[in-house]
Amino acid sequence: MVPQLTDAYERKFYYLRLSITDVCNFRCTYCLPGGYTPTARPKSFLSPDESRRVSRAFAELGTEKVRLTGGEPSLRRDFTEIIAAVRENPAIRTLAVTTNGYRMARDAASWRDAGLTAINVSIDSLDARQFHLITGQDKLRQVMDGIDAAFSAGFKKVKVNTVLMRDVNHQQLGAFLHWIKPRPIQLRFIELMETGQGGTLFHQCHLSGEVIRLQLERLGWRRQPRGRSDGPAQVFSHADYQGEVGLIMPYEKDFCASCNRLRVSAVGNLHLCLFGEQGIPLRDLLADDDQLAALKDRIVRSLLSKKQSHFLHQGNSGITQNLSFIGG
Ligand code: SAM
Ligand code: SF4
């Protein structure tokens, strides 16, 4: 039997979020408002082989699902190679990407051929002008074409991430629902989280997902049960809609009690929480397949220091300046 990664609070970890780059070509107001700033010395991000080794170690510790994220993962020229490398391990049943959708129209079919099984794409507004204002890129049409391309390539469902922002998109539930009525899209509202760089926007625009939940319930949407490797979304469905709505509410009481995921940054540090400390280096154990046992041992030991909860309620986002270095 596969040993299951478990922490001191009896939480089990089935899900790895693997960042493969910090680089991004968008400038989302809540993430990289000034755009990506390259560091003086270009960093080297995990190679396909390193990605394969780290996900294999996690798979041998019970991980069933890996999400590739960033920065913008599809900017990696070897992105399909990374997909194929992670999928080499049959225990990884779900391999997903979170993307800004920039390359989807062009590449969704090749991602699927390489072994990708699920796509999350970020769209904060269905209005092209507003999309441009939020992301710094006039690319809503291109991203929408990407969603069509994903369906044509054989993805049965696409998830869309929408960061909920007061007076930006919080009054647009009607338009979002109209859009997903005939489409198998799970639209997930994510509460805006406070980061080191995003304090001002947070105080202006943070809004509880409760406002959406109440509207959904009034409109007859019903909450679905959650699977063990599912993300943190509360998912709602409605008989008249092909699409679903998800709510991700990190500020809700007990959000951390159902935490089932760990994160590895693009430079190979293990992060026990999205909002935590520097990270535990794993890269020295990713150079060779023979290091697998030592790598697993370090992961298991590190997990013992995972804290019970984040400290976002106290306005403490740890070292997390923005989410592009660790993938949200
Ligand atoms: N570039 C890809 C994208 O945008 O989908 C992947 C990386 S991005 C950091 C991952 C997710 O984090 C996106 O859905 C994004 O909307 C979300 N995100 C980034 N900053 C956030 C914040 N301050 N609060 C809530 N969600 C945030
Ligand atoms: Fe880039 Fe994604 Fe951050 Fe937007 S949310 S700036 S697309 S990494």
UniProtKB/TrEMBL annotation:
Encoding gene, per UniProt annotation: moaA
Binding-site residues for [4Fe-4S] cluster 2, renumbered to this chain: 256, 259, 273
Organism phylogeny: Bacteria, Pseudomonadati, Pseudomonadota, Gammaproteobacteria, Enterobacterales
Residues noted as binding GTP in the record, renumbered to the chain: 17, 67, 98, 159, 261-263
Organism name: Serratia symbiotica
Binding site residues for S-adenosyl-L-methionine: 30, 71, 122, 193
Pathway this chain belongs to: Cofactor biosynthesis; molybdopterin biosynthesis
Protein's name according to its UniProt entry: GTP 3',8-cyclase
Catalytically driven reaction(s): GTP + AH2 + S-adenosyl-L-methionine = (8S)-3',8-cyclo-7,8-dihydroguanosine 5'-triphosphate + 5'-deoxyadenosine + L-methionine + A + H(+)
NCBIfam families linked: moaA
Binding site for [4Fe-4S] cluster 1: 24, 28, 31
Enzyme Commission number(s): 4.1.99.22
Entry keywords, A to Z: 4Fe-4S, GTP-binding, Iron, Iron-sulfur, Lyase, Metal-binding, Molybdenum cofactor biosynthesis, Nucleotide-binding, S-adenosyl-L-methionine
Domain Radical SAM core stretches: 8-234
InterPro entries linked: Aldolase_TIM, Elp3/MiaA/NifB-like_rSAM, MoaA, MoaA-like, MoaA_NifB_PqqE_Fe-S-bd_CS, MoaA_twitch, MoCo_biosynth_MoaA/MoaC, rSAM
